[in-house]
Amino acid sequence: MYIRGNITLETMDFKGADILSTKGLIRADLDVILERAKFFLPVAKKEKSSQILDGKVLAALFYEPSTRTRLSFETAMLRLGGKCISVVGMDSSSLAKGETLHDTAKVIENFADVIAVRHPQPGSAKEVADAASIPVINGGDGAGEHPTQALLDVFTMIEERKKLDGMTVALVGDLRYGRTVHSLSYLLSHFKVNLLLVSPDQLKMPDEIIKYLKKMNVHFSEMEKLDVAMKNAQVIYSTRVQKERFVNQDEYERFKHYYILTRDEIEKNNASVTIMHPLPRVGEISIDVDALPGAAYFRQVQNGVALRMALLSLVLGAKV
Amino acid sequence: MYIRGNITLETMDFKGADILSTKGLIRADLDVILERAKFFLPVAKKEKSSQILDGKVLAALFYEPSTRTRLSFETAMLRLGGKCISVVGMDSSSLAKGETLHDTAKVIENFADVIAVRHPQPGSAKEVADAASIPVINGGDGAGEHPTQALLDVFTMIEERKKLDGMTVALVGDLRYGRTVHSLSYLLSHFKVNLLLVSPDQLKMPDEIIKYLKKMNVHFSEMEKLDVAMKNAQVIYSTRVQKERFVNQDEYERFKHYYILTRDEIEKNNASVTIMHPLPRVGEISIDVDALPGAAYFRQVQNGVALRMALLSLVLGAKV
Amino acid sequence: MYIRGNITLETMDFKGADILSTKGLIRADLDVILERAKFFLPVAKKEKSSQILDGKVLAALFYEPSTRTRLSFETAMLRLGGKCISVVGMDSSSLAKGETLHDTAKVIENFADVIAVRHPQPGSAKEVADAASIPVINGGDGAGEHPTQALLDVFTMIEERKKLDGMTVALVGDLRYGRTVHSLSYLLSHFKVNLLLVSPDQLKMPDEIIKYLKKMNVHFSEMEKLDVAMKNAQVIYSTRVQKERFVNQDEYERFKHYYILTRDEIEKNNASVTIMHPLPRVGEISIDVDALPGAAYFRQVQNGVALRMALLSLVLGAKV
After folding, report:
1. Which of C65, C78, C298 sits opposite A110 (nearest CB)?
2. Residue from B97, B29, B92 nearest B60 by CA
């Protein structure tokens, strides 16, 4: 997390803050964000309404397709009484005319009160934040970070299991290229979890994250087979093998369905396990799993709206 | 029309219903919808304002370009006090990453209160509706159905002629590939109309529709020449020959201007006839026809907003 | 400016007017527009809020990418309490199906209360305005006009220098193809300015504009070197050499950085000069210029929101 000027995390005042990464967050920050997300959950669930961001404008700058994340931000803003202006795709932007992200940010700050930016280039969200005088939330910057996804994942784990401390959480699939599991690992280090890192040898968690987990004294084990996780985890976090990260398409074909969660296996081994996935899924979780009470991946989406409501209201300094 | 759970058409309660087709509609349904559209017409005409859908969010999922239909839905929602989130085009969607329509629907239901979907694949609107727990309105699914167009067409005929029973209605042009005239035929079968089906032999109304009209005892005749319609119809419904449906472009060229309505011809034969068209027109109706009092195709657009206001408010259970 | 029906500029009543060009504007019109922009500046600056356009809908029809202009119009509308429906790009429009602009306009007038249109074809905004019964604002039509840019430029000059009469204004760069400097020249002719037209010989101001300036008795000089302007101007208006206008890319390369404004040069020669640019810049102004008090190009963006608020409220007949 990047904090501008005299706003510091110690005061718990997020007003004006940029949310760029999960790395710098401390447990107390997390508590503020998660409590605020919990507060807005009834609004995300359409049970209550709110006008807390009346008069505020969100600029959603999506330089690459990410319909889910964009609509989640827009929904969060609209259901809190705010308004949205949106840019979708590289072509429809001034970038086509050679403008720098710095200049784009200096322009957009005149339109909006807060920016959510998605960009294929790692570091681009920070570039926007450094230029803009209004708060910036990173909606994913390439292989970089995706902090709102990681935050909604932690929020979902707590919603589903009541607590995270003491839980065994399995991260399953492509741990090498999946930025989601990277951002999530940083966050989980704030809790007393037992991490199971399940991946093919070629798609193991990067050294940088492994070192970080060790430094933070996180209890974790790496493994290739799913069976231990399937028996012992309270949460299985499954991920898509990302075709776009593979140069060699044969290798992609080999790994894309390396782990498939089926209803039979889950019911036989661990009927109450919580199943999560950042979506879209492309076969990692069978459709028949959807009917299980522990299938939490669509509730994750709803929690994502609540979490983004929390961040938008916090960085805009709205009191609840 | 597809009705979910214990909501049945017999109770006239559309709350939660999906509007996927015109086929299952009964006359009593039509009456409810048309009455509601009439009620909202002053709002569509910008003479009155309404906040009846305050706090509601429409997701407009447009997987193929259809600016008119999308803007009509969005305008209907906004002018009733609601808000919109929109997806335009296939590329900017998660589908590019291989997500099924089923999963997309399970995601979107967490954002919106109602979905309007346009998709090139027949049956896709039903796929979305089967997955989503919120009401879904079909904004056109390929060669399948386009129920809101057909409903606004019937609404327009009644607005223009005061009634439909006893009227002679000519459907003119490409009756084979034009889904609009198919959906419309189903609806017109509920009224005591005399149908003139005017098309080149190669573009005749499909057998399925002809059988349906016979079964419903609709009085109709098929013909290739326009002259009978030009003399006797109270309503001429002209359609565009759809280039995109022809494999053979020579054939398209041959038929595209098979029937052209001109001011001279209309004034000479049938000055008070109502002229309709689903738009866009590409030459089927001369520009000079626009000045005739019976030129109703742009009023059709306005009626379309009122009709979509009716459907949105009905499926969202709003009382008027 | 095109005025429809019995609405005339003499009455100072802009209700229902189309804003298509800066050519026909008289000084009294300008005063009304600039005063209204000044009135809305605190709303554009997010210091005040307004609901003056509550219930009104803007259709933003952007047939070519112009994110800045589109977002500026949308922001202006939203911050005055209005709503927006938007079309971005040629492909997602009915034009792909062969519809004329005339028909598109007749359709859109049923959705919106006012249209902002951007189109690559000169004259297209007038085509839309001629067809539509609602007011139309030209958001740039190819090599034609860009009146809202010129108006916000004049508004910015007055905001920055308190007045325009008596000022020396230098227009620098591509004066041949840059429609912005053309529209701006027409407007500046209403003030007692001294114009310095600084360009390479190959990119001189077109004869038509030169003749107009002479006819209006504007004091101006043409020159190739920047030094006179750098020493004597109160306002330097720098422009981008537009790659897309050059057939010969070698020629583009030769001219693209013909004039570069640097902090050193400005501080040495004319420290208090106001620097303006319609953006995006691609090297004409060094980044280090941004820190100078006279660097007004990002304030221009904010003024653009206020100016578009002024136009939207005027043509919609809103009283302040």
Report:
1. C298
2. B92
How many other CB atoms are there within 10 angstroms of residue A65's CB atom?
22
The amino acid present at C166, given as its one-letter code, is: G
Residue A43: how many other CB atoms lie within 10 Å: 18
Instruction: Mark C13-24 as b/e (b = at least 16 C-beta within 10 Å).
Output: ebebbbbbbbee
In this structure, are residues B234 and B161 in contact, taking their beta carbons and an 8 Å threshold?
yes
Radius of gyration for chain B, computed over Cα atoms and rounded to the nearest angstrom: 19
Dihedral (CA of C19, C21, C23, C27) sign: positive
Nearest-angstrom CA–CA distance, C296 and C292? 9
What is the distance between the alpha carbons of residues B140 and B117, in angstroms, rounded to a whole number? 7
Are A281 and A152 contained in the same domain? Answer: yes
- From chain C, pick out residues whose CB is under 8 angstroms from the CB of A55: 49, 79
Phi/psi at B53 (5° precision): -110, 25
Per the structure, the complete domain to which residue A285 belongs is given by 147-300
Rounded Cα distance between B64 and B75, Å, is 19
Residue A320 in any domain: the answer is: no
CATH code of residue C121? 3.40.50.1370
Contacting C with CB below 8 Å, chain A residues are: 55, 57, 59, 83, 85, 87-88, 91-94, 96-99, 102-103, 106-108, 110-113
User: Would you call B136 helix, strand, or coil by DSSP?
Assistant: strand
Number of domains in chain B: 2
C119 and C154 belong to one structural domain? no
CA gap C69, C73 in Å, rounded: 6
Dump the DSSP string for C50-116. --TTTT-EEEEEESS--HHHHHHHHHHHHHTT-EEEEEESSTTSGGGGT--HHHHHHHHTTT-SEEE
B74/C84 Cα distance (integer angstroms):
9
Give the C-alpha separation, B206 to B176, whole Å: 6
Chain segment C234-278, per-residue pLDDT in tens: 999 999 887 777 788 888 888 888 899 999 999 999 999 999 999
Tell whether the torsion through CA atoms of A250, A252, A258 and A264 is positive or negative. negative
Distance CA B130, CA B104 (A): 12
pLDDT at A182 over 50: yes
Q: With bands split at pLDDT 50, 70 and 90, how would you rate the model's confidence at C42? A: very high
Q: How far apart are CA C217 and CA C211, in angstroms?
A: 10
**Residue C74 with chain A: CB contacts under 8 Å:** 85, 111
Angle at which helix A297-315 crosses helix A27-44, to 10 degrees, equals: 110
Q: Where are the alpha helices (DSSP H) in chain B?
A: 27-44, 67-79, 101-108, 124-131, 147-161, 179-188, 207-215, 227-232, 249-255, 263-269, 297-315
ipTM of the shown complex: 0.94
